[in-house]
Amino acid sequence: MSPESLIDVFREALSVIVIMVSMIIVPGLIVGLVVAVFQAATSINEQTLSFLPRLLTTLFALMLLGHLLVRTMMEFFYEMVNMIPMVIG
After folding, report:
1. Pairing with 55, which of 7, 15, 84, 89 sits 20 to 30 Å away (CA)?
2. pLDDT for the residue numbered 11
3. What's the whole-model pTM score?
């Protein structure tokens, strides 16, 4: 396997990871920002107030996007398995 193809595989793996993680994390970040603005506007300094909405948003995102995440991971895995003959030979 040439170094260029190894770098391509590594780059593709990193892009898949970034896409999958961002699908889970970004909704929680947006809800956390909204709750933080609400807390700043109302002067409520309760730490646990921002935890529950972020947790529920993350779980909801996993429920909605779970099939897409699994499909993306399976496509990447199948692509890696199909590349085995090129790596060996």
Report:
1. 15
2. 93
3. 0.77
